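queue> pop job 88
queue> type: inverse folding (structure -> sequence)
queue> payload:
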């Protein structure tokens, strides 16, 4: 195990890091057919990311499963692609369960982690055939037991713990008195200690193991080291108090970082930090299935957004470039100031190429919304030279938390989504919506 758990990445980011899976000639054909904005997804990249994440933990001495958190992108075509890879699907709502069922995924490959943990919710989950459920409160565990009694199923029940460790990340999910999970010992029934004891004596629920999630875009891996050390001590304590105690599944959540602006460690570098400790836990406490969750890493680099430049203006050595996209379809640009890499799509025919202009010192990329926050942060590898009206701009690594946040601000409609299949063909996997659709959704027909 690497003791220095912060991986230092010193190489300079380059445009070569971008996943240009669609050629300019194809981009021009696709926008001619479907218009802009337009999402594009690459099936091969989805498969490659699933394989890369699984392979990263090849040194773990036991079974390894990768779970896709479909909250990152629930496009049915993406779900079906990952079904081919045999991934587990991490769900947190009945809506996501509906999508999984419509895609005909095996409920054995589902892990359900609710935040609300309502009894009626659990009844529907168990009736669908899902057997592995993560509980995050004593009340949630009680509701699951009541649902199990009504359905006649004994679910494999995992406890989501909050290790309460410091996390340096874009989005933190583990901190003292946090929303997610329960502490090891909190002085109330909402503690892992009390919940384990209750589960071990339950005839309705079967204790399966633990789950934690520390955050998103983690590059300093010391938080995993600290969390696993605390898990080790807690599991030792539970074994002394409950001789039959046995962990069958241990889910260490996600956090695998994705490149947007600065270089990030690979999944293999991340796994190198704590796979030794994971093996030590298995040696000490018994063999278990290791589950690695991911939403962002599995889908981010698979997708790009193509938008058309509709206006420009220049003053004081600054150039404002306005595109027909906005944060209504790339919300993290406003929420997290996400620096998606961007570049102007090359002109296919040289005779159509605009007159080469001297680069403007400061280029600003703005969206079409009448909102101050609708300005896109620019990545270190972005290239906005030749940003002229009528040209197209590609936004890269937009596969996570973009489609799922599409919203109708300013009566904006959802863009279509096209997937590049592994055979190189392009197919429409989501139709773009129309103003008519939106009007009906907003109650227009009721009036």
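queue> result:
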């Amino acid at each position: 195990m690497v003791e220095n758990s912060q991986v230092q990445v010193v190489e300079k980011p380059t445009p070569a890091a971008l996943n240009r899976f669609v050629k300019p000639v194809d981009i021009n054909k696709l926008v001619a057919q479907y218009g802009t904005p337009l999402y594009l997804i690459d099936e091969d990249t989805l498969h490659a990311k699933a394989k890369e994440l699984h392979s990263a933990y090849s040194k773990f001495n036991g079974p390894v499963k990768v779970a896709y958190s479909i909250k990152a992108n629930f496009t049915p075509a993406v779900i079906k692609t990952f079904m081919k890879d045999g991934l587990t699907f991490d769900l947190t709502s009945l809506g996501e369960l509906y999508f999984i069922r419509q895609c005909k995924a095996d409920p054995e490959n589902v892990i359900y982690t609710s935040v609300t943990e309502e009894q009626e919710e659990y009844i529907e989950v168990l009736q669908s055939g899902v057997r592995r459920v993560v509980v995050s409160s004593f009340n949630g565990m009680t509701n699951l037991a009541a649902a199990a009694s009504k359905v006649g199923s004994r679910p494999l029940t995992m406890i989501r713990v909050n290790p309460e460790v410091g996390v340096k990340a874009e989005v933190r999910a583990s901190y003292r008195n946090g929303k997610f999970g329960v502490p090891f010992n909190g002085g109330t029934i909402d503690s892992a200690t009390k919940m384990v004891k209750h589960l071990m004596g339950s005839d309705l629920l079967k204790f399966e193991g633990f789950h934690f999630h520390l955050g998103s875009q983690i590059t300093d891996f010391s938080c995993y080291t600290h969390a696993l050390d605390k898990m080790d001590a807690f599991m030792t304590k539970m074994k002394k108090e409950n001789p039959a105690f046995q962990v069958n599944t241990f889910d260490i959540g996600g956090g695998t970082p994705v490149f947007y602006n600065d270089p990030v460690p690979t999944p293999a570098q991340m796994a190198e930090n704590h796979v030794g400790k994971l093996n030590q836990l298995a040696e000490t406490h018994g063999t278990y299935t290791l589950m690695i969750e991911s939403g962002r890493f599995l889908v981010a680099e698979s997708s790009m957004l193509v938008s058309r430049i509709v206006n420009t203006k220049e003053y004081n050595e600054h150039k404002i470039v306005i595109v027909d996209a906005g944060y209504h379809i790339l919300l993290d640009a406003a929420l997290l100031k996400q620096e998606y890499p961007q570049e102007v799509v090359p002109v296919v025919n040289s005779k159509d190429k605009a007159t080469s202009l001297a680069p403007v010192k400061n280029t600003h990329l703005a969206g079409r919304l009448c909102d101050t926050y609708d300005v896109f942060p620019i990545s270190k590898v972005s290239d906005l030279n030749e940003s002229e009206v009528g040209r197209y701009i590609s936004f890269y690594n937009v596969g996570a938390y973009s489609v799922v946040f599409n919203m109708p601000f300013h009566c904006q409609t959802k863009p279509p989504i096209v997937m590049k299949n592994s055979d190189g063909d392009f197919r429409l996997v989501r139709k773009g919506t129309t103003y008519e659709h939106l009007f009906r959704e907003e109650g227009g027909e009721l009036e």
